């Protein structure tokens, strides 16, 4: 029987090679899912490395170390914070945040104030702006022509990466199930 010339032949999808094949209908979807997770992991790791390098470059432009710059940005964005909260927002250990705050105080960008047991780190906004604004302005000017993506697209990417935390629940479920491939 001849095919109609306007109806193209359906070709099978390319086969993946990411694991054993049992021929069950769900195997392909599972393998594609694993391949996608691996791709997301690679891209996220690359993005994290680039982000670290960007922060280091911005910090150097501002005459600061990366940890100081992270703390300075968190303080400017969120206002007075405990050192523990500042550490969490900056992705630092409490000890690293303490050292960064010590250096920010020496630069005149932050001051500790409060009662013992409840000390807050306060940003000194004029000094913070004087340090960070030239580097951030340079970033904005350089970034805009380089990207085809708008802020909405970047917000969507951030939301999708945050949604990826649902994988933690999946990992728990998979660990709780009996090992299927040990026999």
Automatic annotation (TrEMBL):
Amino acid composition bias (Low complexity), ranges on this chain: 12-21
**Matches recorded under Pfam families:** MarR_2
Ranges where the HTH marR-type domain occurs = 63-118
How far does the signal peptide extend, from start to end residue?
none
Q: What segments bear the compositional bias annotation Basic residues?
A: 1-10
GO molecular function terms listed in the Swiss-Prot or TrEMBL record: DNA-binding transcription factor activity
InterPro entries annotated for this entry? Answer: HTH_MarR-typ, WH-like_DNA-bd_sf, WH_DNA-bd_sf
Disordered as annotated region, ranges: 1-30
Q: Which protein are we looking at?
A: Biotin operon repressor
Q: Which organism is it from?
A: Sphaerisporangium krabiense
